[in-house]
Write a structure and sequence with these properties.
InterPro entries: FAD-dep_OxRdtase_2_FAD-bd, FAD/NAD-bd_sf. It is a single chain. By secondary structure, the protein is an alpha+beta fold. It is 21% helix and 14% strand. It contains one helix and two strands, in the order βαβ. It has a two-stranded parallel ribbon with strand order 1-2. α1 links the parallel β1 and β2. The protein is flat and about 25 Å long.
Amino acid sequence: MINYDVVVIGGGVAGYTSALRFLEQGLKTAVVSHGQSAMHFSSGSIDVLSIPQSMAKR
């Protein structure tokens, strides 16, 4: 089982912002989102705010 200190529900601007704040505080954080977030502008957009596992603080 994977354990997290914080699970943020929602991948929009507020969700990503709060997740980044939790990461800065050293908390193991997960973001759960479904469908297109508020950051999705067109079918060709790239999710530049996602943090790859390899770059996330542990």
